[in-house]
TrEMBL record:
Species: Parambassis ranga
Single GO term (MF): acetylgalactosaminyltransferase activity
Main location: Golgi
The protein's name in its UniProt record: Beta-1,4 N-acetylgalactosaminyltransferase
Span of the signal peptide: 1-30
Amino acid sequence: MRSLRKTVLLAILASVVLVLALLHSWPTRAYTTVDLWQQPGLLVERHLEERFQEPDHQLSNIPYHVRDSVASLLARNSCVCEGESGGVNLPFTQLLFPRVSAHPLHTAFEASELEEMKRRRAKEYKSFQKRSKTAADVLIIAEANSPLQYPTQGVDVRPLKTIIIPGLAVHNLPRDHYSINITATLGTLNVAAEVDAVRIKGDGEMHMTISSSLLPNLNRQLQFVTYTNTLFNPSTVDTVQFETEGHQAVFSIKIRHGVTPKLYNTGSKGEYNVSALVTIATKTFLRYDKLQDLIDSIRRYYPTVTIVIADDSENPKTISGPYIEHYIMPFGKGWFAGRNLAVSQVTTKYVLWVDDDFIFTANTKLEKLVDVLERTTLDLVGGAVREATGYTATYRQTISIEPGEEDGDCLHMRRGFHHVIQGFPNCVVTDGVINFFLARTDKVQQVGFDPRLARVAHLEFFIDGLGSLHVGSCDDVIVNHASKIKLPWVSQSESDKTYAKFRYPSASSDATHTKNGLLYFKNRFQCLTHN
Ligand SMILES: *[C@@H]1O[C@H](CO)[C@@H](O)[C@H](O)[C@H]1NC(C)=O
Ligand SMILES: *[C@@H]1O[C@H](CO)[C@@H](O)[C@H](O)[C@H]1NC(C)=O
C-alpha cells in the first residue's frame, strides 16, 4: 500500500517536471502557416488587368493602315523556325557563306511518347512560371489625369521590415471631405505619426482609410504612412492600391533581401597578378600527351597559376606538379560534368576555361582578359583559338528566343555579335563564345554546366546563361589549338581514335538525341535555327 502511494507520488512529480520542461521549450512565438504556392499579389493583378481590358468603342471605329516594315518586327507569340533554301552545294560553302538551317527538336522522342512528353513539359513549365513570376511582371497603367501622387518605382523593403512609403499626396481636388484608401496584399499599413483633424481607420491592417476635411492635413498625414511586410519572401513584390473616390492608382513595393556580395581581394595596385586572380580549369579524357603539352606551355608564361584538371579517363594517370589539382572522376562521366567539377573547385575571382589540347603562346595574354572583366560589367569574355592551319576562330554567337505557344519557344543562333566595346576595339558584346574564356567564377558556378550533356555540348551553357550572363569576346588574346584537322600524312594515335569516337558522335547518336531532348524539355524549345 505504502509503496503504491509512493509510486503514484513519484509519477505525479515526474509528469509535473515533464510538463514544466515542455512549457519551457515551447516556442513563445506563434507561427502562422502560409501557402507558398498561392501568390496573393497575383490575384490583385488579375483584377487590375480586367479593368483595362474593356475596349474603347469610340476608338475601334477609327480606321488605320498597317506599316508592314515595322509591324513585322513585333513578336507574334507563335514563332516558327525557317531555314534558308537554295544555293549551290560546294565544299566549304557552310564555312564561307553560312546558311541558316532549321531543326525541329521533338524528333528527339518517339512519336508514341511525344504527346505524353508534351503534357509533362507543360505541367513543369506552369509550375516554373508560378515560381519565377512576381507581381513586378504585371503590366500597370497609370490612369489619365489622376490627382493622386505616388511613387512609380524604387520603393524597397527588406522582408518583414518597415518603411515609410515616400511621395504619397493628393493635389488639385476640391472637395468638402477627403477619403483615401490604401490596400496592400503582403503586408500591413500604419502611420508613424498622427496629424490633427485626420481620421485613420484600419491602421495595422492591410486596408487603411485616411480621411479629413482639410487637404493640407491629409497630405501631411500621408507623409507618415508606413508599410510593414508580414509575409516572408526573400524576393517578391507587393502591389499597393491607392485610391480616393473616382481615382485609383497602383504602385509596387519590392520586398527583398539585399544582395550578399562575394568579394575577392585582388592584391595591391599596379599590374594584375594573374596567379592571385585566375585559376585555369580544364577537363581531360585519355589525352595525357596533349594535356602535358598544355601544362608545359602554361608554365612558360604563368609558373604559379593554379591549374584544376577534371579527368574521367578509364585508367587515369597521375598528373602532379606544383599548383596542379587533379580530380579523378568515374569513367566517361562526360564533358559538362567535368567542367562542373573543375569549376566548383576554383577559389579565385576568375576562372579561365581551356580545352586540354590548347597551347599557350606569347599571344595568350591573360592580363588583357582580366583587364576587360575588371573594367566592364561583363561576366565572361572569350578569346580566339588559332588552328594549326593559321585560321583563327572566336566563334561568336548571338542567341535569341522567340515566344511560341504550347509547342514551345523558338531558339535562334547566328554567328555574330551586338556591339563593339568602347575602350576595347578588339572586343565585342555577344551571347556565346568559343571554348576559351575567362569568367567571373561565381557567375559560372551559378549557371552551371548541365552534367546530362556528356558528349556534344558547348553552346548549351550559354543558352542556360542567357539573361544572366553578360558575355563579350576579344580576338587579340589567342591560344593555339593542337592540330584538330586530320592531315593525311599524320597517323592518328590509338588514344586519339578512341577520343574521337566519344567526342564526335554521329548526328543520329544517343548523344545528339539527349541534347535535343534537353532543348525540347528542359529549355522548352520547339525548334532551333542556326547558321
Ligand atoms: C474605401 O474602402 C471602404 C471599405 O473599407 C469602402 O467602403 C469605400 O468605398 C472605399 N473608398 C474608395 C474611394 O474606394
Ligand atoms: C601573386 O599572387 C600569388 C598568389 O596569391 C603570390 O604568391 C605572389 O606573391 C603574388 N605576386 C606578386 C608580385 O604580388
